[in-house]
Amino acid sequence: MKKNIDEYSLLNGDKNTFENVFSTEDPWKLSGTQEQLRYKIVMKYIRKNFLKSVLRVLELGCAEGNFTEYLIREEYKVTAVDISEKAIERAKKKNLPNAEFICEEMIKYVTNNDISRFDVVLLMEVIYYLSKEKKVELLEQLHEKMNPEAKLLVSAPVKNKHEMFLSEQRLLKKLGYKGFGRYKDYDGIILSSKGISGKLLEIIPTYRLKKLYLCLHKYIIPFRINQKLFLFRKD
Ligand SMILES: C[S@@+](CC[C@H](N)C(=O)[O-])C[C@H]1O[C@@H](n2cnc3c(N)ncnc32)[C@H](O)[C@@H]1O
């Protein structure tokens, strides 16, 4: 029987399971309206927070290169890493200029490569697949090897009871222990828009959230309600 994707939590870089997930094309529906809107918001956030016109980006857990396409449209130079060969094969077929796709477990990649040339490291919707120990290992490696000027951008659902996700407090603490300081935040939350004609994915200031949530919660995928972006610098 096919597993629900939520059951793949805490996989710790188990390649076979992710290959299995990618036996279906686009398993997380990343080309759908909802995720594309998320990508637009993240792009806006990157443009606002990074002043250089050409960024060198390391994208960890790039899947089939869906967000990579957005980065390439901005003419950024991207190295994109994913554990799944199927995903990387599909990403390569997109023939994106200035994108290098690499199939490797992300902790191994960060440990074994010089990542000091990157201006930004993206950890989008991927950190929660690692166990506590592996999260620590990844963050330590990133802290040690990232350029002091570079920023780490993390996107994840927070304040959630699902075992897979961290509370916002714990996420910030974990990164803090590993030497990262919070750089800036939208002080807002990305709401997901399923069932609301693809319109509502936007940054909602926290003070408005409660009211909106009350109006709309029945349409929203619960674990996406608190999806949030964080930008960290090395302390
Ligand atoms: C939910 S998708 C997120 C894709 C994209 N970053 C986004 O935000 O839409 C998670 C991706 O991370 C990859 N992944 C999970 N654990 C990984 C690991 N330890 N090393 C490399 N890639 C990993 C999976 O294969 C999958 O493609």
3D architecture notes:
It is a single chain. This protein has 235 residues and is α/β, with parallel strands linked by helices. The chain has a single domain (5-187, 227-234), classed as Vaccinia Virus protein VP39 (Rossmann fold, 3-Layer(aba) Sandwich), CATH 3.40.50.150. It has helices spanning 15-21, 33-49, 66-73, 85-93, 106-112, 132-145, 168-177, 206-216; strands spanning 56-60, 77-82, 99-103, 120-124, 151-157, 180-184, 188-190, 203-205, 227-234. It has a seven-stranded mixed β-sheet with strand order 3-2-1-4-5-9-6, with helices on both faces. The longest helix has 17 residues, at 33-49. The model is unreliable at 1-10, 193-201 and 214-220 (pLDDT under 50). The structure holds S-adenosylmethionine. Residues 13, 18, 28, 30, 61-63, 66-67, 81-84, 87, 105-106, 124-126, 129 line the site of S-adenosylmethionine.
Highest-level CATH class: Alpha Beta
Parts with pLDDT < 50 across at least 5 consecutive residues? 1-10, 193-201, 214-220
Q: Tally the helices.
A: 8
Portion of residues in beta strands equals 15-25%
Major sheet size, sense and barrel closure: 7 strands, mixed
Helical residue percent band: 25-40%
* Second-tier CATH architecture: 3-Layer(aba) Sandwich
Label the overall shape.
Answer: globular
Order of helices and strands: HHEHEHEHEHEHEEEHE
Q: Looking across the biggest beta sheet, what order are the strands in?
A: 3-2-1-4-5-9-6
